[in-house]
Amino acid sequence: MKDNNCIFCKIANGEIPSRTIEENELFRVVLDVAPATKGHALILPKEHCRNLFDLPEETGAEVMKMAQKIALKMKDKLHCDGVNLVQNNEEPAGQTVFHFHMHVIPRYVDDGQTIGWKPAQLTAEEMDAVAEQLK
Ligand code: 5GP
Ligand code: ZN
Questions:
Q1: Model's pTM, two decimal places?
Q2: Distance of CA 103 from the midpoint of ligand 1 (Å)
Q3: Ligand 1 contact, 14 CB (< 6 A)
Q4: In angstroms, what is the C-alpha Rg of the chain?
Q5: Is residue 96 lining ligand 1, measured as CB closer than 6 Å?
Q6: Cβ proximity of 46 and 28 under 8 Å
Q7: How far is ligand 2, taken at its centre, from the CA of residue 5, in Å?
Q8: What is the Cα–Cα distance from 53 to 121, expressed in whole angstroms?
């Protein structure tokens, strides 16, 4: 299903031009318009879904295959020194466009980017409790 108000639906289905670097029947992979590094790409499913919470399981499995293909291509063609996969779900997690996408970010020695978090201060009891909750 396509959402007529969704910009990534339009990009994924070719209604809005993009710098496409890969395409198959499930996905279009495009360069991010505001890249973190040279080659920063987005894997966009052609079917609309908001994020990981409603992504069909089979599409999820295929996303990882595509991510690996793109990462290998970046290593081969851009000679990057590493790759980050980043995938944000819902606003508190940093999602700004509400059509599932996986960032594939090539990393270069001294590229000046930081992608990370500071450790939360949890007690051993809190860690035990959350481990129980998640079992
Ligand atoms: P999020 O924060 O939702 O994980 O990432 C959204 C990403 O989409 C951002 O990195 C942003 O630069 C990118 N983006 C937003 N609008 C467009 C667009 O129209 N075209 C492309 N190629 N990327 C976009
Ligand atoms: Zn969409």
A1: 0.97
A2: 9
A3: no
A4: 17
A5: yes
A6: yes
A7: 8
A8: 27
Rounded to 5°, angle at Cα 60 from 18 and 129: 125
Q: How far apart are CA 94 and CA 77, in angstroms?
A: 29
- Report the alpha-carbon distance of residue 88 to residue 72 in Å, rounded: 22
Ligand 1 atom nearest to 36, measured from its CA: 10
Q: What is the pLDDT along the chain (135 residues), one digit of tens a residue?
A: 677 899 999 999 999 999 999 999 999 999 999 999 999 999 999 999 999 999 999 999 999 999 999 999 999 999 999 999 999 999 999 999 999 999 999 999 999 999 999 999 999 999 999 999 999
Assigned token pair, 109: 């020695």
101 noted as active-site residue: yes
Cβ–ligand 1 contact at 30 (below 6 Å):
yes
